[in-house]
Write a structure and sequence with these properties.
Outer membrane efflux proteins (OEP); two-stranded parallel sheet; 13 helices; 8 strands; about 70% helix
Amino acid sequence: MIDSIPLNDRTMNKSKIKCKKNKSPVNSFSCHALLFISLLIFAPRANAQDEISLTWKGAINQALAENTSLASAEASLEATKANINIARGKYLPSINFLGSISESKSATFSETAGVLPASSALVGASLSQMIYNEKYLANHKIQKHLYSSQEEQYRNKRYSTISAAGQAYIGLLFADDLLGVQKDNMQITNQNLMASRDRHEVGSTNIQEVLRWETQMYANQQSVESQKATVVVSRARLNQVLNLPLETTENLEDLTIEKDGFIFSSDVVAFSVIDENKARLVRDYLVELGLSNSPVLASIDMELLAQNRQLKSDKRWAVPSFNFTAGADAKFAPRDDDSDPLYSNDKDFWKVGLSMNWPLVDGGANVNRVKQSRSQMSALELQKIDIKTSLEQAIRASVAVVISDFLNIAFASAQADAAQKNYDLVFDSYLVGESDLLDLLDAQDQKLEADISSRIALYTFFVDMLTVEQAIGYFPFLEPSADVELIVSELERKLLGGG
C-alpha cells in the first residue's frame, strides 16, 4: 500500500504525523505553516495533466473561431447578404405558369380567351422582363453598399472579440502572477517566523515577536486564498470568451515586450518616447494609421454611398419605367361527339407587349423625398465628422496612456529591485539583532508592494496596448510579420528625422 501512494502524498502524510506529535504551540504552528506551503507547491503538479497549453495568438484564434457572439454576428451578416440577391431578382425575368378547370351552368365570356363552354380547362404561361426601372436598379446598388457597411460593422465586432479575448488572457496571466507573488511573500513570512523562533530559543527576543509573525502568516494565507479565487474567476472569464468549459485550466504563454510590444519592441521607439516631441510623432503616426483602418469610418462611408444612390434615384422620379411582357394560353373543351380525346384545343391565345409607367404628379411626395434624402445625407456627413474627431481623440489618448505605461515598467522594475535589496539587508541585520521586528515587517511590506506594482505596470501596459491596437484597427499578432516590420520601420524613419 505504501508503494502505491505518490511521493508527494507520502511527504504530506509524514508531515501531518510530525505536526500531530509536536505539542509546542509555536512549533506546531510552524509545522502547519510549512505543510500549507508544501500543499501550495505540490497541488498544481497533481493537476498538471488537466491543463491545456495556450499561446497568445492561439487564444485569439480560438475566440475568433468559437465565440458564440461573433458567430451570431456572422450569421446576421449572411442574412443581410441575401437582400442583394432579392433586390437583383427584381430585374431578372419572371416566368409564371397557370392552369384552371371550370364547370358552370352555361357558357361564359373571357376577355382573353373569348367564349368559354360550360365545361373547360385553361393552361397558360407568361413572361415579364423589366427593361428599366430606376427604383429597382437603385435598390440593388443600395443593398450592395449596405451589405458592405454591415461587413465593416462585423469587422468592428471581430475587433471587439479579439480585444475581449486578449483582455481575458492578460487578466488570467496577471491573476496567476499575483498569486505567485502572494505565495512568495508567504514563504518570506515563514522564513522570518523561523528566524524569530531561532532568536527566541537563544533568548534574544520574546514570544510576542514569534506570535506577531504567526499572525502575519495567517494574514498571508488569507491573501493567498483570496488570490486563488481571483484566478478561478479570471479563468472562467477567459473560458467563456473562448467557448470552453468554464473549469478548463490553461497553461498560458507569457507575454514580453520584445515579442508582443508592437512598436515598443523597437529600440528606436523605446528610447524616443521619452522625448515629448517624439511621443507626439508616435501619436500622429498611429492616428493616421487608425483613420485609414477604422471599420467604423468605413461603415459610415458605405452608408454615405448608399444614401447618395438613394438621392440620385429620388431625383429621377420623373423618369419612366419600361417593362416587357409576353404570354400564351390554350383552352380545352369537350368535343360534341363521343370520339377521343374528351377535350380538344378549342382556341389558343397569345400576346406580347411593352408597357411604360410615367409618373408625372404625385401630390408633391416625390419632391419631398428628394429633400428627405438630402437631409439624411447631411446627417451622415456630420456623423462621420463627429466619429472621425472622436476616434482621433481616442487614439491620441490611448497612445499617451500606453507610452506612460511603457515608461512606468522600468520605474516599477527598479522599485522592485531596490525593495528586494533593502529587504535582504534588513533581514541580515535582523538575524544578528541590529534590526527589530518593525524594520523587517516594513521592509517585507515594501517588497510586496513593489512586486505587485511591477506586475501591475507590466500587465497594464499590455491591456492598454491592446486598446491602442483596437482603436487603430490593427492587431500585429494577426498580421504577417513583414507587414508589421514595415509599419515599425516607417515609424522609426519618422522618429529619426526621415520625414
